[in-house]
Write a structure and sequence with these properties.
By secondary structure, this protein is of the alpha+beta class. It folds into 2 domains: 10-39; 49-142, Immunoglobulin-like (Sandwich). It is 24% helix and 29% strand. It has 2 helices and 9 strands. The protein has helices spanning 8-39, 88-91; strands spanning 49-56, 61-69, 72-73, 77-80, 85-87, 100-101, 106-109, 125-129, 137-142. The strands form 3 sheets. It has a 4-stranded antiparallel beta sheet with strand order 5-4-8-9. The radius of gyration is 29 Å and the shape is elongated. Keywords: Membrane, Transmembrane, Transmembrane helix.
Length: 147
């Protein structure tokens, strides 16, 4: 055997080290992607808030309440029904667009006031967060008394 040449055993160790290195790199990449998917939440555009609804059949009206979570500017909350779309500020005359809607605040949709239409038991009402710096996000939806 000439000096400087490698035997078959020495080459196999070198190839095995390369395979182990490649497998380790692949494992690290898969682990990093998996950890990102499992442990990091997606950044949503809308605020984290809870909206609830209560229907009053005898009045053909719907109460929309902020039940907790982040406060939202009244001008950024859109109430969308079958015939109308208004902001929370337009319905609540005590607020302007920059007023904050906080937990415990409520408005009533009905034929009186800015909404101007009765709410039927089969109507669909959607509460949207619409801010110029974010996309419009659905915060809550009422699908009538049928669910």
């Amino acid at each position: 055997m000439a000096a400087g040449s490698l035997s078959g055993d020495e080459q196999a160790v070198s190839e095995m080290a390369s395979v182990i290195t490649l497998v380790a790199i692949a494992f690290v990449i898969v682990f990093a992607i998996g950890a990102n998917v499992l442990f990091f939440e997606a950044d949503t555009d809308g605020p984290d808030t809870t909206i609830s609804f209560q229907y009053f059949e005898e009045l053909s009206a719907l109460q929309v309440s902020h039940d907790g979570g982040e406060g939202i500017r009244a001008g950024d909350l859109l109430i969308q029904g079958p015939q109308r779309e208004v902001t929370w500020a337009e319905i609540d005359r005590g607020m302007d667009d920059s007023s904050m809607v906080e937990s415990g605040d409520a408005i009533r949709l009905g034929d009186a006031g800015a909404y101007g239409e009765t709410v039927g038991e089969n109507d669909r009402i959607v509460v949207l967060y619409a801010n110029v710096s974010a996309e419009t996000t659905v915060l809550a939806q009422w699908n009538g008394t049928r669910g």
